[in-house]
Amino acid sequence: LMEQFLRSQDYHHAFIYGEKLFNNNPYIEKIYDTLVNIIVKTNNWQQLIVITEKAYSKKIIDKKLYKENTSIAWYEIAKIKQLSETIEASTYVQKSLKLRENFSPYVKLYVQILIEEKKYLIAKKFLKKTWTYYSHPELKPSIIRLAEDSKENILAVAKYIVGSNNSEDSTTLLVEASILEKKWNEARNKLRVLLDVRPKKEVCLLMAKIEEGENNNFQKINSWKARSEKGAENNIWICTVSNKQQNEWASVSYGGYFNSLVWKQPNVLNQIKINIDNNDN
Q1: How far is CA 218 from CA 42, 66, 123, 191, 221, in A?
Q2: pTM
């Protein structure tokens, strides 16, 4: 019956019979995975928490998968609640962060909620704590938005959050903040440490912005833009099933695969194919 309803895309009834199977014998091959896929189709995230708890207690899944899937459920519930109850949304996203600490998509959502509630100081301290342990380029827009919404100097906020962290992401964050504040010399001086023999694409494009803002020298701007084409790409979210990439993390990839996205550098051949497909569309 479960398979029959799945074929007819009646996911509500498919889940009812799948849950009965799971409760009778949770060790049936791939029954947990099947239920997860049904839940993803119906966005019934509360049920994901319930069956994941049962699967973990029966030792069908390991602790890592238990934490990941449960955290995703809380994250999705938080996104739904954000539309009407920001206090509840804040509670739920914090639950997801406890299970998957410093995970950038969860951090972004929590900071977004804090900004909406005008809890700027809490957001700033939380970002600093996160950045200390795990600096991540996806958090840069959240830091800039926090400074803009709280009407603080962007560079000052960036320096506070970076602290003594000297990662490449910290450098590029400070450079971007300097550019936004039109501190051209400071931006140029900070970026020098990343100008090696073959700088990354992002670094070249930042140099182009500096040249544009400081001197508006078209020859140098175009030179850096041309050089960027030979630079390595930044990491991006890539689906481990379809190998397709996307700019934003989601619990379900664009191809419909649950918890399949990983943060890594795009494959060059895959990137070329995607660009060709996009041009054809």
Answers
A1: 52, 54, 39, 20, 5
A2: 0.89
